[in-house]
Amino acid sequence: MVMSSVQAKSFFGVIQRIYKLFSTSTKRWDDLKSFVKGRKGRRLTLKSWSDTRWKSRVDSVKAVRFQAPQIRDALLHLVENRGDATTASDARSLADYELQSFDFLVGIIIWFEILQKVNSVSKLFQRNDMVIGESISLLQGLIVFLEEYRNCGFEAAKVEAQKIASEMDVEPAFCEIQIRRKSKLFDENARDEPVQGAEEYFRLNYFLQIVDNALSSLQLRFVQFQKYEEIFGFLFNLAKLKNMDDESLKHSCVELENFLRHGDNFDIDALELFSELQLLRKALPDGLSKPVEVLEYIKNLYHGFPNAWVAYRILLTIPVTVASAERSFSKLKLIKNYLRSTMSQDRLNGLTMLSIEKKNSCET
């Protein structure tokens, strides 16, 4: 989403510049704290933008979203009271040309609304008991939100931005964009290009690009999840498993065998799995509701349910989200960034996986 438009990249560049200006000096940080009193007695600390952690992205925007007037005042204080010319120049630029831009204020509202919802779903995806069925419902809810936000979110963002602009004495008007016009060749017909107002240009080239980019990514993930649900759905939904008729259950077992087949090799036998599940769904205690609980139940009985044992293990190892090794965690923070290390991200991910699966790697 960040790379969806030039304006979006510029927006997060401003967020990062504000953070770096204050965080690189304890005196400037103290100045900031003296101006930022917080919301409901709780100060929101400026955060750095991260390429991998959604939480940091939300926090970096949230602090500016709810404290823009106070941050602007802190920047002006730096201009007047700090002798460093570079600091004064940077602070003046941020205070006068960035935070006092109505485009920037609208962008804060838009990004906070989107990132907050995405982060909420992302945190739920990180639960160790999350399964595909729940993830599909969460993802579908997020898609519905973005579709509704696409239709009415821009006007709502303008209203919220106008409140902040009023508090900061900023004119609630979008900046006029000078459109670069292409030179016409001698044999081309002259055509008048449509003229867009500043607000419409912002809506089309900023707001809609961000939302459409997010929707496209989520819809692709949703289709992938649905494909897995069609194959594994009868296993992770215990109510569905118990209520399926034998013909439907057998068909699902055959589809699963075909999906897991690799040439002449296959992980399960469909007919044997069908027979095992007929018995298993009647033997399961009433208190079980999740696939991981079913796997625990048959853990000591896998000799009697070998195909079900394999099927549920495969089901529960299907990732519902993606992740990469984060260099700032624990000892990995010693590797400051990829520019200062010869270790590639692939190797870092591999070493991280070996550490996570240390028990299994030592046994093999």
From TrEMBL:
Official protein name in the record: HAT dimerisation domain-containing protein / transposase-related
Gene Ontology molecular functions: protein dimerization activity
Ranges where the HAT C-terminal dimerisation domain occurs: 278-358
Pfam families: Dimer_Tnp_hAT
PANTHER family in UniProt: AC-LIKE TRANSPOSASE-RELATED, PTHR45749
Domain of life, per lineage: Eukaryota
